[in-house]
């Protein structure tokens, strides 16, 4: 009887270990899926990594102190666009709301869609770079040869002059990179599909 009891205890022990391991694996998978949105939320709240802030209204405080903002534009491989800022650099008062534009053109012979990512440098200024309006909030679709001006409405939070890590910053660079969106892939027409089918036959 003692041998049988020991065997049952061993089986129960193994079953418990398997259950614990499975629970651990499931928990880790859940954390992995949650990590990306949580990290994005953390960046948006803190400005970590140069992530800018999104606000609903302009600043009510405007300082006499000025700061320069430079504009950078890039396109990732796979997106056949020409993309650049209309102005390369401006100088504005801290707290002043300013509208600037970027310009994009679809150089392909088919419709393309892009989504922009963004950041600012120095990275510490991200918490004080506030966007009221930006083309980067949604994806952009351009027809063949279409050109579009894309507005960015922003201001620099006056609190930037009080923070130890940013009070001596005189220039900020706002950088965008457009990546191809899934819609970008051209779809074969019905006639093309029929032609391919007849060739195979």
What's the gist of this structure?
The protein has 201 residues and is α+β, with helices and mostly antiparallel strands. 28% of the residues lie in helices and 35% in strands. The radius of gyration is 26 Å and the shape is flat.
Identify the strand order in the major beta sheet: 1-7-9-5-3
Quaternary state reads single chain
Q: What is the annotated CATH architecture of the largest domain? A: Sandwich
Mean pLDDT: 79
N- and C-termini, Cα separation: 74 Å
What's the name of the CATH homologous superfamily of the largest domain? Answer: Ctag/Cox11
* Number of individual domains: 2
Structure class? alpha+beta
Describe this structure in words.
28% of the residues lie in helices and 35% in strands. It has helices at 2-46, 190-200; strands at residues 53-54, 66-75, 81-85, 89-93, 98-106, 112-121, 129-134, 140-142, 147-156, 171-180. The protein has 2 helices and 10 strands. A 5-stranded mixed β-sheet has the order 1-7-9-5-3, with no helix packed on it. The protein folds into 2 domains: 1-46; 53-184, Sandwich (Ctag/Cox11 (Pfam 04442)), CATH 2.60.370. Belongs to the COX11/CtaG family. It is a single-pass type II membrane protein. The chain crosses the membrane at residues 12-36. InterPro entries: CtaG/Cox11_dom_sf (IPR023471), Cyt_c_oxidase_assmbl_CtaG (IPR007533).
